[in-house]
Amino acid sequence: MSRVLIVEDDRQLLRALSINLRARQYDVDAAPDGTSALAVAGRRPPDLVILDLGLPDMTGVDVVHGLRGWCTAPIIVLSARDTQGDKVAALDAGADDYVTKPFGMDELLARIRAALRRASPGDSAPVIRTDAFTIDLATKRVTNPDGDVRLTPTEWHVLEILVRHPGKLIPQKQLLQEVWGPGYESETNYLRVYMAQLRRKLEPDPSRPRHLLTEPGMGYRFTT
Amino acid sequence: MSRVLIVEDDRQLLRALSINLRARQYDVDAAPDGTSALAVAGRRPPDLVILDLGLPDMTGVDVVHGLRGWCTAPIIVLSARDTQGDKVAALDAGADDYVTKPFGMDELLARIRAALRRASPGDSAPVIRTDAFTIDLATKRVTNPDGDVRLTPTEWHVLEILVRHPGKLIPQKQLLQEVWGPGYESETNYLRVYMAQLRRKLEPDPSRPRHLLTEPGMGYRFTT
DNA sequence: CTGGCGCGTTAGGAAGGCGTCAAGATGGCC
DNA sequence: GGCCATCTTGACGCCTTCCTAACGCGCCAG
């Protein structure tokens, strides 16, 4: 989980940002002005900083300088001002990106992802663990205590759909449609065969599955 | 001096960018479409890419993917479209920044400086070792206990994509598209031939590969 | 009690992917 | 023009994967 420091004096915007970031599993710190921003950053070093330029106590460029002295985390500047001079000044001071208000939340989130991706290459690992096996969605790898588990493409496809929604019940129709395509919604046979194969490869006791569960008459469910 | 690749089909804009960048001592390459962009990038690896989304032959997102397969240089996207969806798609594909046309030259130059500043210090040690061979991505050299290994350009291209993502499963489609270009996604023959050649040159026991692995029906994987 | 239904399990044949080899193309270089 | 390295292309055998059908079991309703 990445820690994000939000430096913003507008309470309402701060609230909106915090909620959105927390919903995406970021660890959020907040500071209402430049002085406390530097203090918080020192106490809890952030992985990324979102910095509003219109602060009450000091200019945004000063904050950037203050941070850049010791901190290499990416800085994304927010500002209502849209003049080139402001942007150039902030970027050359050490900021990494400059977003003009009003901005779309989706865009800001994408820029945050891009900045974090560049800063820490390959640490964001969507990996799911159970006590019996581990699934790495990025590298498409499944391991159990004995080592790597070889899955066929169809087996992987079924497993991936289940694992992407942990704990959620997936209807048979949805699985069949996503893996075999529309028109196969009634071939529940296929599902039984492949669920059996997955359980044989992954469950410690395939006849008593603990992670790949059947909900009779409804569908299947993956549980950690 | 940093090398910048400009991918832009608008002659006039290309000219303006080139002049401005050359005046700032950048080494400028240019490509008018996605296909030649990938070709030029392969021949003369850029330190930064400026990519217009409105290309005649392929979508900007495809170009980003094609570059990201083996190239870690920052990518700044230019686009006339200002919708959030476009920005999010480009950034999540691997772009580092998104600038909407019309833009100010000073701002773009500042964003270029910011991108290069972030990219340069963490130049990351581009050398991968296994117990059977060593790969130096910077000098494009491969050595095994017997000395240097001679690879053909295509062999190298395939190997580089795999090695840039250690442990990750690369789908055949992606390899084919990035090495042979779009339109070759179904020529899985090529892959089999070249994987065999790479294994014969690199693996101690080519018939039982330990580093260049096949995941049947899905793709290939490089493991240290 | 009995038949139907859904689920798990197994096995075998068909289809297609994979590794391998070798024979043309292709293009650069002398 | 001829030589060489490299890239394409086709053919073959082997092996994996997928589909399909059959059977057994447990559950529930009739």
CATH class of the largest domain in chain A: Alpha Beta
| Molecular shape of chain A | elongated
Order of helices and strands of chain A: EHEHEHEHEHEEEEHEHHEE
User: Which stretches of chain A of 5+ consecutive residues score pLDDT under 50?
Assistant: none
Strand arrangement in the largest pleated sheet of chain A: 2-1-3-4-5
Give the amount of beta strand of chain A, in percent. Answer: 15-25%
What is the CATH architecture assignment of the largest domain in chain A?
3-Layer(aba) Sandwich
Query: How many helices of chain A does DSSP assign?
Result: 8
Task: Report the helical percentage of chain A.
Answer: 40-55%
**Largest interface, C-beta within 8 A:** A-B, 32 and 33 residues
CATH topology of the largest domain in chain A: Rossmann fold
Q: Give the N-terminus to C-terminus distance of chain A in angstroms.
A: 19 Å
Rg value of chain A? 24 Å
Mean pLDDT of chain A: 92
Your description of this structure?
The structure is a homodimer of 224-residue chains. Chain A is an alpha/beta fold and 224 residues long. Chain A is 41% helix and 21% strand. Chain A contains eight helices and twelve strands. In chain A, the strands form three sheets. The first copy, chain A, has a five-stranded parallel beta sheet with strand order 2-1-3-4-5, sandwiched between helices. A four-stranded antiparallel beta sheet of chain A has the order 6-7-8-9, with no helix packed on it. In chain A, strands 10-12-11 form a three-stranded antiparallel beta sheet. The longest helix of chain A is centred in the middle third of the chain and has 15 residues, at 105-119. Chain A is elongated, with a radius of gyration of 24 Å. Chain A binds chain B through residues 74, 84-85, 87-88, 91-92, 94-98, 104, 106-107, 109-111, 113-114, 117-119, 121, 138-141, 150, 152-153, 156, and chain B through 72, 74, 84-85, 87-88, 91-92, 94-98, 104, 106-107, 109-111, 113-114, 117-119, 124, 167-169, 215-218, 221. Chain A binds a DNA duplex (30 and 30 nucleotides) through residues 152-155, 187-190, 192-193, 195-196, 199-200, 207, 214, 216-217.
